[in-house]
């Protein structure tokens, strides 16, 4: 989930090269929020906008299947070849062009308490300072009775792949406020996202959970409360507030693909001789 309206530029980490003037952020409406508008022609493959998410979390099924990504910025921690070996179950699987992989294992760090991995010391520090001190399970990382593990297990049992959101986005939002010295600033930031009417929220929750599991929202709310209750955010833990939080993540969260998948796709296209290439490397 990325920063909203008035804070959008403070969270923006820079726009690449000439594209700096190629787009602008405009407020569209309170229902639609902000939008990105082109101010000039943009070439295919050009980076037009970069922003830092307020919170990010790996899809839980991906993590369970040991897709290795930085726990803070989601950068891949495994090379395309390792990814292909894991997915195909063939340890000897070789992919051409290893030089396209830029995974820097020498920079990787882990949390000394729960061993979760980061791409760099910067990400480890950023996570610790924003939310990880509250969420770190320490040595209980594999304990099925740890409240956060119970919550994640419940989410996985309700939300099958392909995943479109993660309960951990909400957990990180709460943990961010719990850890923050200036709680109001973060509450203000989160409250600036597009809000929906109760009916629209119901529809979004319905879509996220699917017909079969619609009634499970209350079950998730109980586990969420047990794991994370925070007085300053008490409104998020009520049945209505939790549904709104759910809808907020469903509306404003963004699923992202990885660079790694893009590289694998590109290599497959090369291997199969489909004559298709991205702009990169030309
Ligand atoms: Zn990272
Ligand atoms: Zn930890």
UniProtKB/TrEMBL annotation:
Domain of life: Eukaryota
Domain called MYND-type: residue spans: 101-136
Protein known as: MYND-type domain-containing protein
Organism: Marmota monax (Woodchuck)
Keyword match Protein biosynthesis: no
Gene Ontology molecular-function annotations: histone H4K20 methyltransferase activity; zinc ion binding
InterPro entries to which the protein is assigned, alphabetical: SET_dom_sf, Znf_MYND
An example Gene Ontology biological process: negative regulation of gene expression, epigenetic
PANTHER family: HISTONE-LYSINE N-TRIMETHYLTRANSFERASE SMYD5, SET AND MYND DOMAIN-CONTAINING PROTEIN 5
Keywords: Metal-binding, Methyltransferase, S-adenosyl-L-methionine, Transferase, Zinc, Zinc-finger
One Pfam family named in its UniProt record: zf-MYND
